[in-house]
Amino acid sequence: MLVALSASAMLGRVTTGSPSRARSHRRIRRRPLLVLLALVAATAVVGVAVVVVPLLRPAGPRPLFQMPVACGETWQLSTYPGHDDFDVDLFPIQGEAWGRPVLASFGGTVTVAGINGSLGGRTPENPEGPRGRGGGYWVKIDHGGKWETQYLHLLEPPMVKVGQRVEQGDQIGKLGSTGDSGAPHLHYEQRRGWDKVETHFGGTPSGITTDEREQILRRVSDNCPAVS
């Protein structure tokens, strides 16, 4: 009887020891998971910082933008009520508008080259065709320092691709009337960060600031080839 109790007691001590060892193993197995979660959290924080911090930095100095049209040409700069502040529409004063070269205002990297909205059906052969929506064929160029320019209503698919480096005066497209456009022209914007700002050409303000009233100005393009 004593032997049986002793064996029972010994068996009890052996079996009661096994669960505690199993819990110990489970605690050990949890540690890699906790480390993995910590690494994921740290990576997420770093990722957010990489995206947010550059956005919080102040913009760099304004590039010396030039008009996005050929050297020496006189163009009409205009806006109208409802067009949005700082938006500029450019129309040539002389010659055929359809297909005129649209040039980069300053050097930079193409970030968008495609379709904004829908194209519609206005072409040189059918100038009164149906309007599309938005900007039609368009291009956006990042000039660094949080500065960018946008070029809308191009006639055909852009002549540049996303990621391509362009220099001031490089042709990026042709003047057209795709998207929500009533006649062939170039809708042009200069942006600092998220904000549209008054366009400057050759360091001089364009004068197009508000869409509260119709404005029509004339400027001569200095977007000329560099003299070597």
Number-wise, the strands total 13
| Spans of at least 5 consecutive residues with low confidence | 1-28
The secondary structure category is alpha+beta
Element order: H for helix, E for strand: HEEEEEEEEEEEEE
How is the topology of this model organized?
Layout: H1 2-56, E1 74-79, E2 88-92, E3 101-103, E4 108-118, E5 133-144, E6 147-154, E7 165-166, E8 171-174, E9 186-192, E10 195-197, E11 200-201, E12 204-205, E13 215-220
Provide a compact summary of the structure.
24% of the residues lie in helices and 31% in strands. The chain is an alpha+beta fold and 228 residues long.
Give me some keywords for this one.
228 residues, alpha+beta, Glucose Permease (Domain IIA), nine-stranded antiparallel sheet, two-stranded antiparallel sheet, 13 strands, 24% helix, Peptidase M23B
Describe the fold and architecture.
- The chain has a domain at 73-221: Glucose Permease (Domain IIA) (Distorted Sandwich).
- Helix content is 24%, strand content 31%.
- The protein has 1 helix and 13 strands, in the order H-E-E-E-E-E-E-E-E-E-E-E-E-E.
- The strands form 3 sheets. Strands 1, 2, 4, 5, 6, 7, 9, 10 and 13 form a 9-stranded antiparallel sheet that branches.
- Strand 1 and strand 2 (88-92) form a beta hairpin.
- Residues 1-28 have low confidence and may be disordered.
